[in-house]
Amino acid sequence: MMSVRGRDALPTGPRSQVDPQRTAAHEMFDADVASNRLGIELVSAVGGAAEARMRITDGMVNGHRIAHGGFVFLLADTAFALACNSHGPATVAAGGEITFVRPAREGDLLVARAAERTRYGRSGIYDVTVTREGGEVVAEFRGHSRVLRPAPSSSGDRPAVAGHG
Amino acid sequence: MMSVRGRDALPTGPRSQVDPQRTAAHEMFDADVASNRLGIELVSAVGGAAEARMRITDGMVNGHRIAHGGFVFLLADTAFALACNSHGPATVAAGGEITFVRPAREGDLLVARAAERTRYGRSGIYDVTVTREGGEVVAEFRGHSRVLRPAPSSSGDRPAVAGHG
Amino acid sequence: MMSVRGRDALPTGPRSQVDPQRTAAHEMFDADVASNRLGIELVSAVGGAAEARMRITDGMVNGHRIAHGGFVFLLADTAFALACNSHGPATVAAGGEITFVRPAREGDLLVARAAERTRYGRSGIYDVTVTREGGEVVAEFRGHSRVLRPAPSSSGDRPAVAGHG
Amino acid sequence: MMSVRGRDALPTGPRSQVDPQRTAAHEMFDADVASNRLGIELVSAVGGAAEARMRITDGMVNGHRIAHGGFVFLLADTAFALACNSHGPATVAAGGEITFVRPAREGDLLVARAAERTRYGRSGIYDVTVTREGGEVVAEFRGHSRVLRPAPSSSGDRPAVAGHG
Fold first, then answer.
1. Low-confidence ranges of chain A (pLDDT < 50)
2. 8 Å CB contact between B74 and A68
3. What residues does each domain of chain C span?
4. Shortest Cα distance from C86 to chain D (angstroms)?
5. Fold for domain A19-155?
6. Which of C125, C157, D9, D119 has the maximum number of C-beta atoms within 10 A of its C-beta?
7. Topology given in CATH for the domain delimited by D15-155
8. Looking at chain D from residue 89 to 128, which residues have their Cβ under 8 Å from any Cβ of chain B?
C-alpha cells in the first residue's frame, strides 16, 4: 500500500486488505520526506479530515526528558496538511497555534486527528487533536491554511508558494 | 566547547576561542537529544534571550518541496526553551503560535532569535523571529512558558511536568 | 426571566415560557455589566457549552464601516466565559485567539456558540463560532481558561484573579 | 484637534499645542464610531506604530468585577488598526491573539502601544502591549493584518472587505 508509512512495529492491523480512498493529500504525502523519515503513518485523508500517527522515538526527546514539542507540532501540522490538501488544490500552512496539554514520552504512539472547521475564500481553519493511544489528549492544534494560486502557464510547473508547512 | 552543537559545515567562526556565558539553559540543551540530533546549534542563552541555528537538510523537506513547517516550529521552540530556561528554574512550553512568512528550502541556514516579552507569576511570553542567513524573515513565533513547580521532596527527583516543549 | 438579556427587538420567541437550566454562569452573567449594557443575551450555559447573542448597533461600527472586531471578540469571549463558568468554580480567560472570517454589519444579529474542547488541571480550551442569523460564519475563536484558586479564608471574600475576561 | 478623542478627564496635557503627524490612520479613526464612543484617544499613528488610550468605565466591567477582556482586546485591536493603516492602504484585521496578564479595574487608564513586527505581501504582523498607567502590563496582543484589494473601478467606491477589525 502506498499510503502505508512508518515502522513495522505500528499496531495498524491488516492494512494490506484496506484500500483507503486516495486523494491529492496522498500524493503530497508520498513526496513528504520529512514526515516519512519520522515514521509518520497516513491513516486517512479525505473530505477535509485526516488522521496520522507517529511513535515518539529516542531521538525526539528534549532536555526535560519528554517529547520535544516541535515533534508534537510536526505531527499535528502533517495531519493538518493532509486534511486541507484532501480537497485537491495545493494548500499550505499560513500558521498554526498549539497548546501542550500533557507530556508525551519515548515509546508513546501519538494519533493526530484533523477536522475542518471552516473555509472562506482561499483560507481555511482546521483543528487537530493529538492523543496518546488510549485517548488522553497530548495537544490541541489549530491551523490556518491558504490555497496556492496556480502559477501562470508561462512560468513553469511550480505553484507560487506563499507559506510553508 | 560543550555549547557547540551541530555540523562542521556551520559557518560559526573560531568558536573554540569563544566562551559564552553558561546558564541553566545550556545544561538543558546538553540533554536535548532532539535538538542535538537535528544539528541545532546553541549560540547564546542568557537573561531571557537566546539564539539558535539549524540548517535545513534533505530530510526536512515536505510534500511541497519546502522545509516542513514542523521543523521551523521546532527550531523556534528550542530557541524559546533556551530563553525561558536561561533564568534558572525548569520551565516548559505551555503552547506556541507560529506564522509562516516565507518558505525555507534545503540548504538554508535558519537563525532563531528569542526575546522575552513579559513574565508574570509562573508564566512568560517570548517572541522568536526565524530568519534565513541574510536576514529575510521565515517565521514569527510567540511562545507561552510555565515554570514547573518543584516536586515534593518525598516524591523523587523529577519535577511535575505540566506541558512539554 | 433573569436569563433574558438584551433588547426587545431580539427575535427570541416566547421566552417567558422557557426556563433554561441555571448554572453558576447565569449568576456571573447577571453581574456582567459590560455584556448586559451591550444587549448580549444569554441563551444557554450548561455542561461546558453556551450560546449568546448580540445585535450589531450603530455604536459598534469601525472606520471601515463594518462591526469593530473588538465587539465580535467581546461576544465570543462572553460565550466562552459562560461555557467555562457553567461548571461551577469561578473561571477566567487566560487568553484567546480570533480569526475574522467575514465582516458583520450594523443590524446583524450575531450568535456565538461555545463548546468545550478539553480540560486539564485548572486549564481548559473552548471553541466559539460566531455566525450571522442564517448561519454564515463571521468569526472563529479559541479561548484558554483558568480556574481561580479559592482565596485563603483569612484574606477575605475575593478570589485571586490571575487573568480577566 | 481632530485627533483628540475621549473624555475631558484624560490627563493628556496641553494637546492643543501638539500637532501629531496625520496619516490615513487618523482619517480611519475619525470614522471609527466604536472607538470614539468608548472614549478611546488616538495618541499617535505613524510609520507602522501607534498608541491609543482608553479609561475603564463602570460599563466595561464583567461578572468577576474586572474589566471585560473584550474591551481590553478592543483597545489593542484599535491600536493595531491604527498602526497598520498608518502606511496608507486600507488594511483590516485578519485575526488576533491576546494574553491577559493582569486584570484591569474600573477607573484604570489603559495605554496600548502597537509596533510592526513584519510585513510580507499584503500581510502584516503587529504586536500590541496594553499597560496600566505606571507601566504594569495588562495584556499582550498580536494581530494579523491584510491590505484590502482595491475595488474594480466599475464596481463602485467600496473596497472588498475580507475581514474586519
1. 1-18, 154-165
2. yes
3. 20-149
4. 13
5. Thiol Ester Dehydrase; Chain A (3.10.129)
6. C125
7. Thiol Ester Dehydrase; Chain A (3.10.129)
8. 97, 99, 101-102, 117-118, 120, 125, 127
